[in-house]
Amino acid sequence: MTLNINELGEMVIERRGTLGVRAAANEIGISPSTLSRIENGHVPDLATFAAICRWLKVDPTRFLGMQAAEASEESATVHLRKKKTTSADTATALGGMIIAAQQALRDLENI
Question: Is the C-alpha dihedral spanning 30, 33, 34, 39 positive or negative?
């Protein structure tokens, strides 16, 4: 799996538009020099990559050549039920909480 760094840099440049590097970097929460390196094709660290994807409002899997996984309450619950020390009721409750937390994070990212 490889990071499609050229597409990432191009999208950053396009999204930034007439906004200066310093102002855009401030919006993203990274340094201007880091933003400049990304625009010039350098590979970001994981935290920077995540911040840029949030700023671009793009799923990170787009750049990783992967499909986004859709979590369902059933899949989370099934994984928990495999553990013999977890009761079915506990697994169901924990699965529901995990799904709710994942949805809350998605909702926050879409704000």
Answer: positive
- DSSP string spanning 28-68? HTS-HHHHHHHHTTPPPPHHHHHHHHHHHT--THHHHT-PP
Read off the pLDDT of residues 55-79 as tens digits, 9 standing for 90 and up.
999 888 777 765 555 544 455 555 5
User: Does residue 32 sit in the same domain as residue 49?
Assistant: yes
**Whole-model pTM over 0.85:** no
Q: What is the mean pLDDT of residues 10-31?
A: 95
Residues 25 and 52 in one domain: yes
Could you tell me the residue range of the domain that residue 82 belongs to? 73-109
Torsion of CA 45, 67, 110, 72, to 10 degrees: -120
Burial 28-43 (b: 16+ CB within 10 A, else e): bebeeebbebbbeeee
- Return the structure tokens found at 110: 């879409």
- Answer positive or negative: Cα dihedral of 6, 8, 11, 16: negative
Q: Same domain for 25 and 51? A: yes
